[in-house]
Every structure is written in C-alpha cells, then in structure tokens.
Amino acid sequence: MLIEKYGAPSDVVEKFDRYSEPRDDAAKMYEVQFDRCKYYSIWETDKGEIQLSIDHKGVSSCFVKLAYFDKINSAEVKKQALDDL
Hints:
There is one protein chain. The protein is of the alpha+beta class. About 35% of the residues lie in helices and about 40% in strands.
C-alpha cells in the first residue's frame, strides 16, 4: 500500500552479514533474530521520511516496524540544538 500511495521507495536494503544468502524465509528470520541482517525500505516525501523495516527485540521477538520521521519538527529540534551550541 505504501508503493501505491507514495510510489517506489527511494532506498531498499536486504543485506545479510554472511557470504551466502539464506535459502528460505525461516533462515532469513533467523538472521534477523541474531542481528545479522538488515531489511528496510525508505520513502521520502515533502513532509519527511517513512521507513518500513523488519526488526527484532532479543532473539525471541521479530516484528515489522513502520516509522515516520517528520521533517518540520526535526528541523526545529536541530535549530534549537544549534542555538544551544
């Protein structure tokens, strides 16, 4: 649905920290559990970024994460940090 709404992602990563790619989805998720794999796609919009990823919490819990990064509020926080320097 993200592709339908926003078009093709600006960045897509499926990277394994091994010499060979796992053969099936169960083996791929095993690599995610042990933090030996990165899965994410990023869409850039006028208002910020949207990131869809497969992540994990420990070795027993993998999940899909949808994160929104608001460009306007991020710019304001950065401005305040720069003013503090």
